[in-house]
């Protein structure tokens, strides 16, 4: 596990390597000097317990990527009447339906990539320098 420099907090970013949003998140983390462990859930899968934890923390509606091609190609019967249980089953079967990235440091969970949220929650080199003064 890789740690945030100076913070001692483990950061894991979950997603799919070739996703454009993931590439933006990797670039932000690298530029900010935040070390992380990458978990490619397309190759390595995702644990049901992790999905349940993310859905509890952020809401399954946030974790499920309804805008993606994989979800849009589902039969109407699979897309209708969604519940948390059904959404988790869909995401377990096809991890591409999980919104990317999911960043977990054990205390905070960030779903999707918004630079302002990353700056606020993780800070960057400049934010940590200010805090060290």
Automatic annotation (TrEMBL):
Pfam families, sorted: ArsC (PF03960)
Top-level taxon in the UniProt lineage: Bacteria
Classification via InterPro entries: Arsenate_reductase-like, Thioredoxin-like_sf, Tscrpt_reg_Spx/MgsR
Entry's family note: Belongs to the ArsC family.
Name used for this protein in its record: ArsC family reductase
Organism: Afipia carboxydohydrogena
Lineage of producing organism: Bacteria, Pseudomonadati, Pseudomonadota, Alphaproteobacteria, Hyphomicrobiales
